[in-house]
């Protein structure tokens, strides 16, 4: 009888996870050191990978070694330069797509999209971050005061549970945590509903305080009932 040749299971096209860092590139017009960015492609697999870098606006960027190969369990750096810095491009989000395939095949086994954005000034961005952090601190302070005010058992006719406002606040925080994070391109949710990491941190903090308020209400109710 003829011996059957053993065959390795074929990889499904487009389903291979692609590991690249970072997943977002930010260029600052007033800082030439940021005009050159590096993408690192990792290959944790037991076989070599070919890669190819595509871009929605190739005229704005120069990609060094846009095609190449990565050995098994190795990584490679891909240099991307922004070569058309102008004010009309501020805030415009371009996309890079990194496709990988086996060296012996042409079909793309996996892909990853990277967002690239040109901003006018690194200093302005830092100021915006500081202002956002300040707003977060103020919001957290108000949340702590809100919790302390509600936990004071001054009113002996207090309700047996949290107020509708408190319940609504908890629902809003849970909904915020379920929304996609800014930069996730695979989501079907509109882009204006994508939240930043800092916004989700605020929602998580407030949600933790919400559960603390619920415990406080329950403890207060038990005390007055006894």
List the main descriptive attributes of the protein structure presented here.
Motile sperm domain-containing protein 1; disordered N terminus; 3 helices; globular; 33% helix; 5-stranded mixed sheet; endoplasmic reticulum; membrane; alpha+beta; 226 residues; transmembrane; 4-stranded antiparallel sheet
Question: How would you characterize this protein structure?
Answer:
- With 226 residues, the protein is an alpha+beta fold.
- Helices cover 33% and strands 27% of the residues.
- The chain has 3 helices and 9 strands.
- It has helices at 122-151, 164-178, 197-225; strands at 19-21, 24-28, 36-43, 49-55, 61-64, 67-70, 74-82, 93-102, 110-119.
- A 5-stranded mixed sheet has the order 2-9-8-4-6, with no helix packed on it. The protein has a 4-stranded antiparallel sheet with strand order 1-3-7-5, with no helix packed on it.
- A hairpin with a 7-residue loop joins strand 8 and strand 9.
- The longest helix has 30 residues, at 122-151.
- Residues 17-141 form the MSP domain.
- Pfam families: Motile_Sperm (PF00635).
């Amino acid at each position: 009888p003829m011996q059957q040749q053993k065959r390795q299971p074929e990889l499904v096209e487009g389903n291979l996870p692609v590991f690249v860092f970072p997943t977002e590139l930010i260029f600052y017009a007033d800082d030439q050191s940021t005009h050159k960015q590096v993408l690192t492609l990792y290959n944790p697999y037991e076989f070599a990978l070919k890669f190819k870098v595509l871009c929605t606006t190739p005229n704005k960027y120069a990609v060094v070694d846009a095609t190449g190969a990565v050995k098994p369990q190795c990584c490679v750096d891909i240099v991307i330069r922004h070569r058309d810095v102008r004010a009309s491009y501020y805030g415009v989000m371009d996309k890079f797509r990194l496709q990988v395939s086996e060296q012996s095949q042409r079909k793309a086994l996996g892909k990853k999209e990277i967002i690239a954005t040109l901003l006018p000034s690194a200093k302005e961005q830092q100021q915006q971050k500081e202002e956002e952090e300040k707003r977060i601190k103020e919001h957290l302070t108000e949340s702590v005061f809100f919790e302390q005010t509600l936990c004071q058992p001054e009113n002996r006719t207090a309700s047996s549970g949290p107020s509708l406002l408190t319940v609504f606040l908890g629902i809003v925080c849970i909904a915020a945590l379920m929304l996609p994070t800014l930069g996730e391109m695979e989501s079907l949710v509109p882009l204006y509903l994508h939240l930043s990491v800092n916004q989700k941190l605020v929602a998580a903090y407030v949600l933790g305080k919400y559960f603390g308020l619920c415990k406080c209400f329950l403890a207060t109710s038990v005390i007055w009932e006894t």
